[in-house]
């Protein structure tokens, strides 16, 4: 989680609309989600919260349930937004407002047995949150939409999505009649329906990418999915759609930008993307957010390329709130203060004692070496595909000051042992249980598997999204640079 962003409120001139349709200034504010869990004998002590919000594009937070069975999350938002608390096998869907402090009472047995169990909530918008949870459970009884992509034109695919939106609107109306939910809930639900369907678009694009075919037609239809609907920010799926839209329209469909991205010329590619967004999209918070997301992703990929944009940040980003967030994020990376990761002690089983610093232990063991970390899972197909390339890469750097560390997460331990043995996986092999995996995923912001990171000789993470072993020359050119130091 990012460090404290600001100590006082920062107000800006642009506005959004809250769930009641009233205009409101956007600002950074702290939200607290805390609560108590009625635990069973074998209940997990790890609880997580995910928030796809403007402040960091995606926050995944983890907390340890303490000796009194309590937990607490603190995070920043700019506007009302939905968030999800995950515990055991269950989900608690919430909506939070600036300055909110809400309290949940969860039952571990119910959350182990059901996907959307009911829970008690204390807070200003308790009725709306209860409506959201009931609605999530209510929708499960209806048939899911099939987003089959094969043998479909863009027009036919979009027609199916339009029909699904109508179907979901009908389900929402039925829920409305039976439950009499709040207007706040209805405003959120209508936006959420539209932009949950918008995220099927990227499936169609990915299908054609995998089959080496072109998408013929206007896939991101703005008449169905507007990209200047600032009020839709209440649904976390809207900001996800903005990201997909910007990357597809101004990245993948622009041959110049695409070639620059393929060549890893990130500064040049992102500069063109942002200038085109500013030239062609309607001014407003949504446009600012698209630009911010691109620059934030650049910062996560390459601090050096980000520094080139930062020199002229006012040219690329006019919104001072977003500029402030980027500066804070950059300062955190420069200080390397957020990357100390603790893991639970399997021997003592004492949840209150979080012992062992993964990175420090690795650095002590491999002092003076660069670490190439591979975060993977046994059930992950792309991870398994990379293993032969990883073994080959390790052979190339045998005797060099580079250590390969394979960190298996969210997997069955027996399957992990079998995979290491059968595939002759060399290097340091580390297995993390579910709780340990959740903590590290939250601390490092790991979005998927496989993820590769490079830590330099002094312990700084220099690349949070390093090229895969299968990239060949690309990853070797980076590692060769460390060997020459």
Annotation keywords:
single chain; 485 residues; alpha+beta; five-stranded mixed β-sheet; four-stranded mixed β-sheet; 17 helices; 17 strands; globular; disordered N terminus
Question: If you had to describe this structure to a student in words, what would you say it looks like?
Answer:
The chain has helices at residues 108-113, 126-139, 154-179, 183-198, 201-210, 236-252, 255-262, 266-280, 285-301, 303-310, 313-316, 320-335, 358-365, 381-396, 413-422, 434-444, 473-483, and strands at 11-17, 23-27, 29-38, 46-51, 59-64, 70-77, 81-87, 90-96, 101-107, 120-122, 342-344, 354-357, 370-376, 402-408, 428-431, 451-455, 461-463. The chain is built from 17 helices and 17 strands. The strands form five sheets. Strands 15-14-13-16-17 form a five-stranded mixed beta sheet. Strands 6-3-9-10 form a four-stranded mixed beta sheet. 35% of the residues are buried. Helix 2 crosses helix 3. Residues 1-24, 336-346 and 348-355 have low confidence and may be disordered. By secondary structure, it is α+β, with helices and mostly antiparallel strands. The chain is 44% helix and 20% strand.
